[in-house]
Structure formats: C-alpha cells, structure tokens
Amino acid sequence: MKPGKRILVVDDEQAMRRLLRASLEPEGYQVLEAASAEAGIREAASQRPELVVLDLGLPDGGGEAVLKRIREWSQVPVLILTVQDADEDKVRLLDLGADDYLTKPFSVPELLARLRVLERHANAGAAEPLLRCGDLEIDLAAHQVKRLGQEIKLTSTEYDFLKVLARHAGKVVTQRQILKEVWGPNSVEHTHYLRIYAAQLRKKLEADPSNPKHILTEPGVGYRLRG
Amino acid sequence: MKPGKRILVVDDEQAMRRLLRASLEPEGYQVLEAASAEAGIREAASQRPELVVLDLGLPDGGGEAVLKRIREWSQVPVLILTVQDADEDKVRLLDLGADDYLTKPFSVPELLARLRVLERHANAGAAEPLLRCGDLEIDLAAHQVKRLGQEIKLTSTEYDFLKVLARHAGKVVTQRQILKEVWGPNSVEHTHYLRIYAAQLRKKLEADPSNPKHILTEPGVGYRLRG
DNA sequence: GCTTTTTTTTACGTTTTCTTTACGCGCCTT
DNA sequence: AAGGCGCGTAAAGAAAACGTAAAAAAAAGC
Fold first, then answer.
1. Does residue A221 reach within 7 angstroms of strand D, measured from its CB?
2. Residue A117 Rama label (left phi>0; alpha psi -120 to 50; beta)
3. What is the pLDDT of residues B159-182, one digit of tens each?
4. How far is the CA of A68 from the C1' of D15 (A)?
5. CA–C1' A158–D11 (A)
6. Beta strand residue intervals within B6-99, DSSP E
7. Is A95 in contact with B113 (Cβ distance < 8 A)?
C-alpha cells in the first residue's frame, strides 16, 4: 500500500486544523499544517504536497497571496475555504488558479468528495519547479537562482523578468507579454526596458554575456530561455 | 479565431436552458441543448462536447443516469446543477465522476468561473499543437521550427510566411493570400517578396534547396507546403 | 535625513532584418 | 529566333531592432 497523499492545510484557527486533521487522516491522507500565509508558502515549497486546503481568512496578508505564490511554480490542486460568500471573490479566486471553493460551514463528506475529484484531476502535468538550464538553476518555489551552485542576487524586476521566461522555458515569450507581466498593461510600449533588463540578466548569469547561451533574443518577436 | 468550445446543456426546463445559452454564448461557447436524459446521452455521444452542464432534476430517470452513461466512455468534464441540497447526493455524484456541483439558484459569474476551471483541467494534459510535415516540425505555441529534431532559426517574416503555408498544409495558397497575411493588404502587388522569402526558407529547411520537397511552387497560382 | 540600491530616462553604436535593385534561366507566344 | 513573362538568385542600400553605457529620478534601507 502506498503512503497516503500528503495534504497541506493552511489555516490560522487551531480548531479548524484539528477538525481537518481528524477528518482527513482516517481517509489515509498525511496531513501537513501551516498556521500563517508565510508558513503556508514555505511548507508548499519545501514539502510539495499533492493537495492544498487553503483558508482565505488568514490574518497576515490573506490566503490570496498564498495561492498566487503557489501558482507561480506549481499546479498542485488548491481548495479554498472561506467564511464569506461574496461572488466576486469566488470568481477571482477561481480565475487565479484555485481548483475548488467551499464556504464555511461545510460538510466534511462533501469536502472529502471534492478532494477526491481534485485528486482525480491531479494526474496532469506535474512540472518540476526546479528548472535546470545548463549551469543554471531556477527555483521558482524558493525565489532563488543559482549558477554553478552559487546563489545569484537578482533585483525584483530582474527576477520577475526571468520568471516569465522560465515559466515558458524553451518557448518564445513575446515582448508584449513580458512587458505586461512585469511592468503592467500600461507599459507595453516601453520595449527598451526589455533590452536593458535582458542585458542585466545576461551580465549576471551568462558565462559570456555577449554570447548568451540562456537568454536568447528572437528579433522582432521576444525572448526565450533555453531549456 | 477558433470556434468556441462546445458545451452541452442538459435540462428539462426551457427557461434554464435559455438562461444558460444567454450566459454562455457571449463567452464564446457554442451551446448544444438537450431537454431529457435520453437526449442528453444521445447528444453527448454524437456531438462529443468539450464540457457538459447537467441538471439533476430530470423527469425521465434523472440526471444521475446521464452521468453514469457518459462516464462509461468519456472523461468530459461534467458540472452538476441541482435544486436540492442533500449532502449524500453531492458526495455520490462527485464520486460517480461529476467534476463540480452547483445548487440552484446559482450565480452566473460563479458558474462561468467554475467552467473555466474545468476547461483548465481538461487542457492540462493536452499536448500543444505540433504541425508535422515530413521531417519538419512547426510548433506554433513556441514560435519554433525544427527539422529532424534540430532547431532552425527563422526571422519573423520567414516564420509568418511558413505559418501561412502550414495552416493550409497540402493545399495551394494563392500569392494574394500570402502577401495579404504576411505583409498586409497594401502589399498584394509585391509578388517578388514571395520569390525572395520562398528562396530563403528553402535555403534554411530543404535538404536540397534547388530541389524543394516541402515548399512547392504552383506556377501562376501560389505556393504549397507538402504534408 | 542621508546613503545605497534600484528603476527609469536618455543617448549612441552595432547588428540584424527588410526592401530595393539587378540579372540569369527556362518557357511559351509571336 | 526574339521578346515577354514568371520564377529563382544574389547583393546592395535602407530601415528597424537590438545592445551598451551612463546619468537622472525614484525607492529602499539605515
């Protein structure tokens, strides 16, 4: 028999964590707990659970940030729990990458059934969040970039730029898309930003910045990270 | 523009079908309707929709049977609609293979968001569209062309030219159409562009550029990409 | 409040790509 | 057989896109 799937419960209320543990463990799940948004992100990144149950009502920054951060590198199924019942919230969260949404109070059997549905779906692409490109390691989960095992310090804009490329590693990302994702939809015309930050990234993580092996230019189209 | 995803609505109430059609068509879905369980099964089998919205409150045998029958041969995402709110029902339906469950009255934006989630899951495992023409591979998503597995560098215009031919692989594309799609409607007279770029493409992706096997000339008409 | 870091602005040299121009070949018509 | 026509090839000039450096402005850290 396999060891049960690991499921991460992110909730600040101890009572809720206890209830979930009591409900999930008899079903064969191995329950991991996190009591804050920060801890949730950390656990998700380090433990790589097969499922996540996320309470929106977290005190420190809210669960929404957790979902966003997880979705930067992982496709793990996330079920949202919440007390409120606002429509716009549901829609926004689902579009942000949440896979299901339950309002408290919920029925435990329904929760279990919905988790089974998520498990059924989960067999899809389990992408390795640690990207290796030659001498380069990009860990989207840990927000860390290494070259030859040594950590490289990137500014936040540089990291965002690299992140966009890494998420579509091997594929061309259009200038428009990069600008939109890094600088926002209002800056899609400032294509010179791309040249400047491409140069800065190459200076930091290419062996020979004038002969880039990783960050490749596709003239007239965009940039591409060699995978 | 692609034709929208086809979505099958199974519901005996005409008012509900009308509401769903009115909500879904503006989103780009192509709506198929069935007013009974029997019709639902028949439509699902013959039309193979990409999504199914199924009302449980059907008179003839109930929607449960529809779900069971569909699951015998298809993994199409099914979203259940129902008036009742009994826990055991939800659990049973979800375990029977339903992918989501909404109770009436429901909010249309939430329905749409949940349908988007189901679409996301359905597309997760699907490989990207790869156009194959003999030893040639054209990956439209990655903006990349390979020959015998080896990447070929194309300029933006060369790529556009090839893309037009590839979209109608095997068929003749007229000079007019190529010029219009690559250089815009104002350049339909510059037929010499075609000769230049056809030559460049042949130089890059034919084994013997003077004996083209892929990019064939149809004298007086246009060009054709052999499949 | 000042220093340090990061982002944005500005400017210019270089490379790549696109367009223009020119010429050779084969074929059909006259 | 000469000349027009459509196609293929080559190479030059024009234009666009890219890379780099450095200063000004803004933000972050102490």
1. yes
2. alpha
3. 999 999 999 888 999 999 999 999
4. 43
5. 42
6. 6-10, 30-34, 51-55, 78-82
7. yes
Unique residue bearing structure tokens 């159409």: B177
Query: Residue A49: is the preceding peptide bond cis (ω within 30°)?
Result: no
DSSP string over B97-132: T--EEEESS--HHHHHHHHHHHHHHHHHSPPPPEEE
SS3 B77: coil
Burial of residue B110, with CB atoms counted within 10 A of its CB: 0-12 exposed, 13-18 middle, 19 or more buried: middle
Residue among A208, A218, A200, A75 at smallest CA distance from A145: A200
Question: Which residues does chain A have within 8 Å of residue B99's beta carbon, measured at their own beta carbons?
Answer: 117, 121
C-alpha dihedral, A179 to A182 to A184 to A190, nearest 10°: -40
Sign of dihedral through CA atoms A160, A163, A167, A170?
Answer: positive
Q: Which amino acid is at A110?
A: E
The distance (Å) linking the CA of B196 with the C1' of C22 is: 14
Q: Nearest nucleotide, C1' to the C-alpha of A217?
A: D18
β-bridge mates for residue A144, sequence order: A139
DSSP string, chain A: -PPPPEEEEE-S-HHHHHHHHHHHGGGT-EEEEESSHHHHHHHHHHH--SEEEEES--SSS-HHHHHHHHHTT----EEEEES---HHHHHHHHHHT--EEEESS--HHHHHHHHHHHHHHHTS----SEEEETTEEEETTTTEEEETTEE----HHHHHHHHHHHHTTTSEEEHHHHHHHHH-GGGTT-HHHHHHHHHHHHHHH-SSTTS-SSEEEETTTEEEE--
User: Which positions ≥6 away from B112 have C-beta within 8 Å?
Assistant: A91, B23, B24, B27
The tokens describing A39, both together, are 């801890």
- For the stretch A96-133, pLDDT in tens is 999 999 998 899 999 999 999 999 887 655 556 788 88
Whole-angstrom distance, CA of residue B34 vs CA of residue B12: 8
Q: Closest Cα partner for B158 from A219, A165, A174? A: A219
How much is the pLDDT for A86?
75
